Amino acid sequence: MAYWLMKSEPNVYSWDHLKSDGVAPWTDVRNYQARNHMKAMKKGDLVFFYHSNIGREIVGVMEVVREHYPDPADPRFVLVDVKCHRLFKTPVTLAMIKADPRLQGIGLIRQSRLSVMPITDDEWRIILDLEQIK
DNA sequence: GCCAACGTTGGC
DNA sequence: GCCAACGTTGGC
């Protein structure tokens, strides 16, 4: 199983929106690198939900329930369907991630504009640790 | 194919 | 509101 992180501005589409939608397509990715990551996602993969701009924190974990299919709004890009898996007890903030020497290689820091990125097993475990610590 | 101009993302 | 990073566009 692989791990990922996807960003959304919570005033546009937040964790609570997904929670009330149940299963929903992840829309509006218009970057080829991000799209390629979406194409690599498999059913059952887990995905950190990051609130960008407002909050700047990982709020929970989603699960991929449908693998990539063409975006009807622009067939050059794709959608995946996701659902909420588990809400964090406390969000893991960007500040916490930046302050952790073990997470300096994470895409969230290295490629701050990328909205869909892979997360290594180590990074995944460290972030779950940070959730417990706070 | 290069690169300047421009637009977007997202942290601060 | 500013700006750094970086992707895209279009002229040549």
Quaternary state of this entry equals single chain
Q: Strand order, biggest sheet?
A: 2-5-4-3-1-6
Work out the radius of gyration.
14 Å
The CATH architecture is Roll
**What integer is the average pLDDT?**
94
Helix content: 25-40%
Distance linking N and C termini:
27 Å
Class by helix and strand content?
alpha+beta
What is the fourth-level CATH superfamily?
ph1033 like domains
What general form does the structure show?
Answer: globular
Characterize the main sheet: 6 strands, mixed
Strand content: 35-45%
Count of discrete structural domains: 1
Work out the number of β strands.
6
Quick summary:
The protein is an alpha+beta fold and 134 residues long. The protein is built from five helices and six strands; from the N terminus they run βαβαβββααβα. It binds a DNA duplex (12 and 12 nucleotides) through loops.
What does this protein structure show overall?
The protein has 134 residues and is of the alpha+beta class. It has a single domain (3-133), classed as ph1033 like fold. Helices cover 28% and strands 40% of the residues. It has helices at residues 15-21, 32-39, 94-99, 107-110, 121-133; strands at 3-8, 23-25, 46-51, 57-71, 74-93, 116-119. Strands 2-5-4-3-1-6 form a 6-stranded mixed β-sheet. The model has no long low-confidence stretch (mean pLDDT 94). It binds a DNA duplex (12 and 12 nucleotides) through residues 7, 9, 30-33, 52-53, 56, 94, 111-115.
Keywords:
single chain; ph1033 like fold; six-stranded mixed sheet; 6 strands; 28% helix; DNA-binding
